[in-house]
Fold these 2 entries.
Entry 1:
Amino acid sequence: MLNEELLQSVSEQIVAYDADKLVESVKKALEQGIPSYEIVLAMSRGMQVVGQKFEDKEYFLPDLLMAADAMKTAMDVLGPHIATAKVASAGRVLIGTVEGDIHDIGKNIVVIFLKSAGFEVFDLGTDVPVARFIEEARTVDPDILGLSGLMSTSMPVMGEVLEALKREGLRDRMKVMLGGAPVTDEFARRVGADAASNEALSGIRTMEKWMKEKP
Amino acid sequence: MTSYQRVMLALEGKQPDRVPVVLYPRYNALKYAHHTFQEALEDPEKYVSAQLSAQRRFQYDSVHDYNMMGPIEEAMGRPAGFKLKYVRDDAPMVEASAKIKASVDLGRLKVKVDPHVDGLCPRVLWVVKQLKLRTMEKGEPNVPVITWGSCPSRTAAVLMGYDQWFMLLIRNPELAVEFMELCLGPWLDMVVSEVEAGADVVWVNDPVSSADCISRAHYEKYTQPYEKKFIAAIRDRTGVPVIFHPCGNWHDRLDLVAQNGADALFPGTMDFSLVYERTMGVANVKALNGGVGSARPNTVDLKGTTLAEDATTLLNGSPDEVEREAKRAIKIGTQKGAGFLLGGNCFPPLDVPLINLDAMVYSARKYGRYPISL
């Protein structure tokens, strides 16, 4: 199979979320000497199609999760080769659900789309204390910090993270996006975040726009 | 007319003296009484007294048990590694899910749950009983006690984790069905015990079958049959009215939801007019409950996605905005003489200004007196 055809089938197997065939194609691509970053890009193209289908209500959460799971399985195969891959990062995103909240479906969807859009994602998980966000923000030095929460009780904690960022002199080094059902743009303005989003894809478009505008 | 009479008549699709207000004030009552959820869980008397004092203060028309604490899930799942985490200002959350990969894993779940003995169940029953005893006046019920039950799809998703549940629907739908069948009985026994303890109305919800989560085809084929079974079994074994809460956006499947057998629907962030048009009078649906913070037609895009700019009216809106939306909801919900109970689109969150609860009740009194002409 030609390299282009093989990469095309990698994309299609992501869309079909067929993990077994995907792994087979990825192994074959590696055997044919296709650079691992090209394989990753092919999977990302597949995830973009999945994202579009999700937006068009042709795909739903089960399909999205299956596609992401297939990609994760393939990434495990690519693991040893990926260290030397030269995939250009679309940006670095540090993300987590704030302390007191362990809801993560929304955050996980955002992470899936961020990765497929080429972002480097540092996912801190759920119930993340303010101090951990600050510590990781220093270490990772992200372009964007994403604070997620489903409950209205999470909202003050988001404000506390922003306060701590300011106090520690880190606020101007990154954009901050709030995500989750209860957040609004008005709330984001009030606590000093750059934006808020209730929906994964629109949030990611805002992040992509930020990265394009970045000097 | 008492709150009890008002609510029960509305649920029968009839017109009481005025529109009742049923808004599921779990957090707000605790806020009013200055208790955290954790305190009220450790000391159920605090929960009961908060419900009673807040109802007396705000004059809405119902009291509610804890709701959504996961008592059955905890009892069923513990042997399979399921664990709840207790937090300060909310019901317990899932800390560790049960590992369900194959049929054999279901065997590790406890399916013979005794609501009077296991886990947090007795505490829920005590709360229901106390609410009932303390809302009686001269031997008659004065305020209805509304309790809660979990649809099998929700129970299964909570037990194994939402992500794993959604993938199971594709990977092994037969196992998903087997799992829901297993979850049906324990929650049914719990609901029967809640009614025996004094509950007058049961509300059930499904947050995992909306158009935000799964396709219409998956819903119709796999999860809806278990909603129907659950609601039918509650009706058969207790005879009390059932309110179904389709959580999220169900616009593309309202025709199916209407067939679930519930007496009333308590819609999530949906277009309230659309819900009314597609469900009222269909099958057993005799009333709607909600309306404030529902989406308006112009907040639904061409693909049917709810944009729901108004979804947080109770939280972020002013009393005037609450009144405007309540008036609109009363107008929609009482057309053609249908039963209607004013409320929100979900639990009002903890930080809802209490004055907005006043605005809801004020609006029901101002615009909701029958006969209504708005």
Entry 2:
Amino acid sequence: METGDKFTWPGGARAAVSLSFDDARPSQADTCLKILDFYGIKATFYLSPGRMKERVGEWRKAVAGGHEMGNHTVSHPCTGNFEWSRNNSLESFTLEQMEAELAEASRLIRDALGVEPGTFAYPCGHTFVGRGDATRSYVPLVARRFLAGRAYMAEFLNNPEVCDLAQLGSAPLDGLPSMEVIPRIQEARESGSWAIFTGHDVADKGFQVTRSATVEKVCEWLRDPASGVWTGTVAEVAAYVSSSRNVSGSPR
Amino acid sequence: MNRIKRSHPFLFVGGVCVLVLAVAVARTCRKSVPAPSRTGTEKAGRFSWPSGIRAAVSITFDHSTGSQLDKGVPILDAHGIKATFYPDIPEMRKRLADWRRVMARGHEIGNHSLNHPCSGGFRFERKRGGKYSLENATVEWVEKDIMEANSELKSMLGTEPGTFSYPCGETFAGTGARSRSYVPVVAKHFLVGRGFGLDFSNNPADCDLAKVNALAADGYSFARFKAAIDGAIAGGYWVIFCGHSVGEKGGSYPAIEPAELEKVCSWLETHRREVWTGTVLEVGEYISRERRNLAERRGN
């Protein structure tokens, strides 16, 4: 174990894993939830409120089934380098606008599903607003409002002793066969880390598509007690990490 | 700041010595890179690349590993490709004479900080005991670290770097409600700040030069380079590649194989009239000047 002697995962687990899916894409409700429920794996869904409406009934059932519904803003602003975000770019955003986005997305999810989002996923994994010398981090807004903030495309695994819960790293799940996902979980097990994965659509193949077969094989692998891994939603694992820190004294 | 001055995006005019200048100009002229002259057909009010150019490419390498010198630079030079190197200063010091020669041939050497502070999520950061981890850092400390690197590089190479690459592509200092972006520091001291590992190319009309993205090109095949260049041509973008080593593993990163680098450099040389390959500073300066010109024309 690379983590210190003080930190232990629950039930003797040697690592934690969270699966997360962004944007409330209908294929998540139609395909992904069925696979997860078959294997008894709870995941986190970062909902775009507009697309959430396409499957409200399914999302309500998912809440009842123990999955987590998180906040992903209302309008999904990203860098204007993405053609589709050019008219809603973070470079032209303000912290006040972002605060309003966070509040409104939580309200829409609460009204539709009766649940308060406890964690957040940064659209495109970006954590800034503004440009040049006026660039500001919006991590503090997320830290004040949510237990955890999940970024994207990180090279590193989250170390439970030192990670910033407001800026957790996650690895892409889209397009990968299970044989490229499971080694990352094994790496987390070697180092006692928390591996978070992020997918989008769940289907056979395509752009921003996590393969159904990958979700199946990863769930099957995680479900096996011999895996030595605790699989929980982002909120569950973040709550555990947070409470462990409070008990053992802040690691920093 | 004391940035290298260039009156033309392709000509090196503020160099280290006259001989170097002459060599650089001679090479540049021999390669006959298209000049950024405007044709009458171009629409005023829209960003445009130099005449005939549809996209820009910058090839960058971080950490100044020996394989970049031994296997990468000869390939770049054989095709007249100018690249940008963001050094690990102790590593660069080991072969300083070689790196000076690389710079004299027209390649750019930028700033990659002194102590390479990254998230404590990285094992190498934890092995240093969290002393340099960004979670424990302040923006003021990061600025001091970057400026110390500037002084070191100036004493080693004779000029201060004009562009910066964010260690690990990360831009923050501190955690939670006290987390801050250090992009403003980079914007203050450099023309361009280059990120790492996100999945987009840069829109020259509007991108924030203080946080442009570089694709993580470690282990790239020619096909992957080419797909990214094709995407840049389709959108009129600036695609930046970042690698760490050539032909041998560099730290935790897979190498770019020499044969693949050779193919992409050869392609770029052949297509230099449609795709402009320049250093980060050269492309950044062109973009910056073109935007100023556009703003003036809009003002008229």
